[in-house]
Amino acid sequence: MNSPEDELKRKNIRLAWILGAFALIVLITAFPFWQNIFKVLGSAVK
Amino acid sequence: MSYTTTMNDDAHHHNPTGWRRWLFSTNHKDIGTLYLLFALTMLFMGGASAMLIRAELFQPGIQLLDPDLYNNLVTNHALLMIFGAVMPAAAGLANWMIPLMIGAPDMALPRMNNLSFWILPAAGTMLILSFVVPFFPGGGSQINTGWTLYPPLSVQVGMSMDFLIFAIHLLGISSVLASINIIVTLLNMRAPGMTMMKMPMFCWTWLVTAFLLILVVPVLAGGVTMLLFDRHFGTSFFDAAGGGDPVLFQHLFWFFGHPEVYVLLLPSIGVLSHIIPTFSRKPLFGYKSMVGAMIAVATIGMVVWAHHQYTIGMSLGAVSYFMIGTIIISIPVGLMIFNFIATMWRGAMTFETPMLFAVAIIMMFTFGGLSGVMLAVVPADMQYHDSMFVVAHFHYVLMPGAVFGLFAGVFYWLPKWTGHMYDERLAKIFFWINVTGFNITFFPQHFLGLAGMPRRIIDYNVMFTEFNAISSIGAMIFGFSHLLLLYIIIKTIRGGEKATAQVWEGAKGLEWQVPSPPPFHTWETPPSIKQVQS
To answer: Which residues does the UniProt record annotate as the domain Cytochrome oxidase subunit I profile (chain B) (predicted)?
Structure first.
């Protein structure tokens, strides 16, 4: 049986990960990055 | 709104000492203090840059600085003030006050809190290095882009730009970590009985601010990363010759930059939401509408970024949308101002220093907001764009709206933090010199801009001499007045009249139930909250 403190700690960490993942998604979607990475890779292959 | 508490157990007495106390601290009060000290240091550095700029502009011609150094100072003034002073100061207030206000023993993630702060000195060092490296052999050219970092100029600048990009990444990581911590604390750590709609307004403003930061800081990080790739890895995100578009960077930057204005403003609005009721001895008028207005400001503020870019050649439909959206923001902002005035209406008001600042903020921020409505109108902005009018406008928004709000908060909570009352007479002298100096500095800049003086130039036409001289004199008064602020803070920390737990007669909320200064550990047993008045 977990104590309420442990339960709260777990809840806090879970929410922090969710928010962190959200920030990461915002970061990635801000990039027209992948498209240009492919262009760079494509031109390097050529 | 006020609360009664049933328990306040502060029996825990594990107080670390020496440098370990600060370096390894997981205590929200200590970390709050560190944030505030860092912000104060940066305030003086950014202020010194501003005073050099105004000293140069005292007369037409080039007197003290060369053009490159002038541009460097313009850039570092903005970056130091925004990222170094205002954001960390607001985070300092949040760290100190949020757990005390919601009855939590600490922030939800105390070790991450330590990390959030200690990234900052590293970031601050990188930021300062970015201004300094060009003075060393092989250091390249000085940063001359302004805080907006627009390419292609930012692609051409020397290695100082790489230091700056790294600094922005670190600052962004610190901000996002701090925001996550604040959101988790506010959502999970409130004392039993404190529902969201009983949460103190400062906490609400920080909840919205933290969400805003998580939404926009990664976009800036993405933008500057692409800039780094363009500089070093042969990409052409922002290079038209390689199929990229420099305007893309402007969109990414302002998608961050405009909400950033609200990131700077909202915590101070939260501070005012406590100060005005306290010194009016009335509850805040329209609590629910304040919450709604704040969410509306943040939401609309996210989708109007391109009003900073009217002159780039957008379609008529696009500029119309951004113009209308921007003007609509004045409705919720006006509602907040109305609520503050309605709170004061027929209140038993007294004018201690925090309240003096609050009243001054309402007047000057409203003035800055109105010049913002002028700038939101596309055909008018075509004339005002990149003029000193814009400089006057945003300083009237950000100084009262953000910095004076933080000053008000420091005076309001300083007795709680230190256990001593500050010197009210000196503080009032500081208020009057500071606010007068501010107005002498920035009010004439409206006229300069309207008469056609561009911003970000080291030299100007002799027709602008008089107003520039007045503005520079004001800037010296304004700048040096902050030494008095420093003296008052040091004096209060060192001693003075003992502060009671409640400090201010009209103060309500959990933070006033703990002694002044609060013990190292507070609310280890959550208080039980019962709303007794709304």
So the answer is: 13-530
